[in-house]
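Explain this record to help learners:
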Amino acid sequence: SLQLPDGEDLPLPPVILGELGKDPQNPTVCFYGHVDVQPAKKEDGWKTDPYTLTEINGNLYGRGATDNKGPVLAWINAVETFRALKLAMPVNFKFVIEGMEEAGSVGLEKLLEEQKQCFFSDVDYIVISDNLWLSNKKPALTYGSRGNICFFVEVK
């Protein structure tokens, strides 16, 4: 919980930890995402209710569709597709899905510290799917974060 200035304790939403696969021959990839959003009102320029996912001409509009509910669902759908096609998983999957990112990820650091020897002990790679779009047709690919890791990727 989070203690408010008036002393009241505010319960925090749970962080979802999920995993699929424990093949020791496969690397383990942990995918991070969040499902909370910034406040929005229709008067902010929305053509529809921002909290009702709406399809218009093949595009989906709704608060959090790109930051970050859509990317979270993309990873889950990828796993679902592998399973539906009965394909071998190329990696072991772990998921961290939180609901406090827009407020500074309150409580996440404590959870990470508590779980580093358990849930995170076998994680080889972390993928953060909380990225931005440079334009309506150009997503960003973030390959390093605050000096944590940098590498070269060539796509042909």
Observations:
- The helical segments are 69-84, 108-115.
- The CA atoms of residues 1 and 12 lie 5 Å apart.
- The mean pLDDT is 88.
